[in-house]
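[User] At your convenience, examine this fold.
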Amino acid sequence: MCCNSVLKAQYKWDYGGMLGASNYVGEIGGYDMDARPSVADMRFIFTRPCVGAFARKKVSKKWGIKLGLNWARISGADSVAIIPGRSGRNLSFRNDIIELAFTPEYYFFQLPDFARVGRRGRVDFRAYAYTGLSIFYSNPKARYPYNDPNAPWYNLRYFRTEGQAKPYPLINPAIPVGLGMDYTFNRKHRVGLEVGFRKTFTDYLDDISTVYADSAAIGSELGIKLANRRPEVTGTRNQTVAVGQQYFPGEKRGTSKTDDYYIMANLNYSFVIKGRSSFYKSKYNYLTGAKRKFKRKKVRAKF
């Protein structure tokens, strides 16, 4: 009984980092089909890196909580699509997302010490689902001209490319949802795999949402060029794209019916902290670590 209480009070915290891949689903995607608001519209050639750091605490046998700070890059370009509408639209973007996420974890499957090789070679396994809340920074950019690798990147939000009355927010909330699994070796080293998506409440991860704006609503000459990139399509590709009238003011540029979301898959490592249990604290001073001295009460013999 005493040993069980000691183990429950220990190994509650772990700290670590992750490295993986990120992508997104929005107005830019697909290849030879119309837009689909699902993973089926995601282009794997635009998979980009993500990194992060986290702290996690196990609050009960079935539940844990994690706080993570992550960076993920997402991108896309119509130039790789062969469907005429998207190819002729010719929009592109890059977005470096910085996210602070709070995610409770539910451990729906746990297999402690499944190798059965004793304490020195102990390996624990668990699988979990998570959700929660995150706040992220988003600021899509585009290169102009799009086909020049040395061209500068411009903040699309600044130019209000769809004639917005005011720029869309830089900071937005999202709901993370995903699955994960990890192995813990000797109660010290934890290695895991995690896959999840972020349901956002913005349609501007890629700076595309509604219709082409009138030039007067955009104002600047560079903003007009970044908003409508059909004129940059030249050569043999120009013969296969949709007709130019499709890209006039008021015509469809994106769809505001569904918001964008981004996806992260990562490998992670963390170091498990062996906390002091209540049993330990009863034997050792909390501040100095010195063993407490107990005065023995003298008992007088009674005759």
Summary: Residues 63 and 106 are 5 Å apart (CA to CA). The chain has six helices and eleven strands.
